[in-house]
Amino acid sequence: MSRRHDQQQALSYRSRLEASESSAAGMGWRGWLAHRCRRLAARLDGDISLRLRVETLPCLERQEVARCVEAGLAHANTLLIDACRAEAMEGHLRAECSELYDDQADALIPWRPRHGD
Known about the structure:
By secondary structure, the chain is mainly α. The chain has 2 domains: 46 residues, no CATH class; 57 residues. Helix content is 55%, strand content 12%. The protein is built from 3 helices and 2 strands. The longest helix is centred in the last third of the chain and has 35 residues. The radius of gyration is 26 Å and the shape is flat.
């Protein structure tokens, strides 16, 4: 009875995503022209224009890359909303309940004289 020995091959994949508002150095005249067009578009509509450079192995279709980037931006938006909410709550609490933060500041800075010392 012979055994079949399968050679295990390691999976090989990689991904690289760069996002920038500026032009990439060494992109040539096409990169320069694309950067100028993005800047013009940003001036016209007031939106931010980013240059995305995506490299994947194995190659993914453009639609799949776009779907992944859109999902990532949706997640980033959720994180930004959470950060804004937390900052707004912090500001409100500091304004309305400053006494809560006086004790915290005293505990964090041991060399600061305590009230009444």
